């Protein structure tokens, strides 16, 4: 990865500097020879005298961008021009011929009509050559007709402000340099920027091809003072990534959503943080990052006391119990499962899940009789088998001698397993009678995901 910056006072972020193999390289300002070579490249061939070259070089202060733009501005002002085939001074250079970039940008905007200035500011907001009709859609929201857009881009390119590319995917245009873009952005008023960011955010939310990148819309909506709308899009994107099992994308969107939280109103902060932390914990679960899961579950438990529902708190308790069981912390796992089961009636499918979890904890604790009793109670609470259904256990002596698969299917029959090929609520459970001497999985691999409350087989529901 190569990170390019153009700020003389740039400080390397700590998370970047910690990467192994990280190397920082700074480019020194142009010296006299390099500046003269650039002048000769821009004005080829030329007969500029030494005094003109010296004034250009000293005025640019070693910046190749400023030197090139200053030369271009002198050409546009008619001070430097062609005599025959060679570039030369047509008039003496005035005082302050090489000025700062902000002044050059202002001078190039002089004489532009309202439509061209509108398009220029739209480009400064959307920043890059995004394509996919994004420019056309945002410009249209600003009152620029399609027939007026292309001529306006031509005028801006003739002024040396932008570069255009008319491809098959729509018009692509961007500012000539990030520093030029920054100057145009700074010259806009605060309310003007806000309105343009809002229009850009609305377009990126719904435009086909860009809606798949919710961070773009979120950034614009946050800059427009609408961070909640941006966060809603990011949260939707995280859920979509989880459904697709695109875990790196989901984790990146979580990181971006946390960044947008800085702009959220205080009364909405806990609600959005809670939603993001819950989703991030699911990402960590699939990645196997148990220590990070525990941190997020602790934070989610704290936030749930203020913004969560009773069902949310039960789910957090069950997921915390899963981790405790995997780590062999049986007392903690039992306490969490009992907390999740508290207050649930027999007909509630969540009680059946909790019962199965209690049985699993009891077995892991060396109490197989208690485990069998708990599971029998879960079967009884679940009620009779629906008509037309047969026990799913294979190799059992009698219909009541449920194997683990059959018992779990009855306990979890209200769930639909999303794992391909599963014919019951959880077809992955080993077929062993709960009261047999065959041990359950060890505490290092307890298969606690059988009873994870957000979906069976360890596949969380959307």
Comma- or semicolon-separated keywords:
462 residues; mainly alpha; two-stranded antiparallel sheet; two-stranded antiparallel ribbon; 56% helix; elongated; disordered C terminus
Structure characterization notes:
- The chain has 462 residues and is mainly α.
- Helices cover 56% and strands 4% of the residues.
- The protein is built from 20 helices and 4 strands.
- The protein has helices at residues 14-17, 32-42, 50-60, 64-76, 101-109, 114-126, 134-141, 146-158, 178-187, 190-206, 214-223, 227-243, 247-260, 266-287, 290-307, 310-326, 330-341, 349-364, 368-382, 404-411, and strands at residues 80-83, 86-89, 162-167, 170-175.
- The strands form 2 sheets. It has a two-stranded antiparallel sheet. A two-stranded antiparallel ribbon has the order 3-4.
- A hairpin with a 2-residue loop joins strand 1 (80-83) and strand 2 (86-89).
- Helix 2 runs parallel beside helix 4 and helix 11 (214-223) packs antiparallel against helix 12 (227-243).
- The longest helix is centred in the middle third of the chain and has 22 residues, at 266-287.
- It is elongated.
- The two termini are 34 Å apart.
- 34% of the residues are buried.
- Mean pLDDT is 77; it is low at 386-462.
